[in-house]
Amino acid sequence: MKQQEQWSSKLGFIYATAGTAIGLGAIWKFPYVAGTSGGGAFFFLFILFTALIGLPLLIGEFLLGRHTGKDAISTYKQLAPKTAWVSTGWIGVITCFIVLSFYSVVGGWSLLYLFHSITGQLSGLTVEQYGERFGEIIANPVPTLGAQLLFIVFTILVVSKGVQKGIERASKIMMPALFILLIIIAIRSLTLEGAMEGVRFLLLPDVSNISSETVLFALGQAFFALSLGVSIMVTYSSYVPKTQSLPLSAASIGIMNIFVALLSGLIIFPGVFTFGLEPSEGPPLIFVVLPAIFEQMVFGEIFLIAFFILFVFAALTSAFSMLEIIVATRVKKDITKRPKVSWIVGLLIFILGIPACLSYGALADVQIFGRTFFDNADYLVSNILMPFGALLISIFIPLKMSKTTLFEELKQGSSIGSKLFMVWYVLLKYVTPLAIIVVFLDAIGMFR
């Protein structure tokens, strides 16, 4: 039996992990959720939750994975054998299945928009016409399903190559390109005439905009953006050598995640306010608003193509991790099974995602709880499964691993002292679960 791979370098691990953490969570989802949830107030809560809840949990998932060196399900089996705690790993696997089923739909949209932008079909239209064009594109079942399948196939091809030759190699190319393109486009967006109104919307919190729903969405976004609560980071860190500093890696990823969310907001909201558009457009925000913004820029077509190249990169880096956690549970340490398992799992995810793909076309009128298949999948993952998974993990770590074991594992590759360790331990054991429970209870009206 061939042994499990490891990341070839510290930078490779950070790039790959940052890729899953950043991805569409920061670029596609953050702007539209911020736009519908209060702008600056939402952004402030997102940063707060990322720092006080997200990062401690991220370090905790890193500790679990590196300590056991196993996939998500096997990790919980080892640390809590013959108990129900193994369900925590299964929740993560199932959640990734659901996420990638609708995430691949957005990935397919990005491929279609890249094609349309390259061929000049997204130029010379009004804002209303861009909205109509978006509706026409996503309502057509053949190209949308084809693009979704193509996106899944790209993901399968990379994951089937393994950790170093597939995920790490692709992430080393994609992540630097993503940062460079984001910075260039953000600088251009900030030169627009009404850019400052968009900046104020993003950066100046208005407490009157904070509601229980805003808090819940901000918490869900912090988990979604860092891929927490689904044990992705448990799986990725199982490939990490003991010489890697887990706190430093987590801090780097958290900072990059906030920075990319900030850049995404600075790309979109200045243009939104400059051209009198609505920040509350929802999931189609990027696809409807950005072409209209770039249409009115000098060299707008070039920037539009560059943005959707970036968008495809972001989607793929996140998709790699979601497929990897599922594949890893089946492959375990026998990497010879990886190609076959990758194809089987990937195609099953595509089939599961067909209703979400048709949610804006053939199945647009089919709704459950007042939402389409796509919206239900998004809500279930972001606002229920991820926070619930995070709650279980935050309880599991201090319950099943002693302080001494955690401290020794955390010291491997880092110079963290006992005081900083205790700060992390208190945040993970008390603050994280309490905050998640309070937000959940408030969201269902327990405090009203």
Automatic annotation (TrEMBL):
Q: Which UniProt keywords apply?
A: Membrane, Symport, Transmembrane, Transmembrane helix, Transport
Q: What's a GO cellular component annotated to this UniProt protein? A: membrane
| Compartment(s) where it occurs, according to its Swiss-Prot or TrEMBL record | Membrane
Gene Ontology terms for molecular function: symporter activity
Ranges annotated as spanning the membrane = 12-30, 42-64, 84-106, 145-163, 175-195, 215-236, 248-277, 297-320, 341-363, 379-399, 420-441
Principal place of residence: membrane
Task: Give the CDD domains listed for this entry.
Answer: SLC6sbd_Tyt1-Like (cd10336)
Membrane topology label: Multi-pass membrane protein
Matching NCBIfam families: Na_transp
- Family of this protein: Belongs to the sodium:neurotransmitter symporter (SNF) (TC 2.A.22) family.
State the protein's name: Transporter
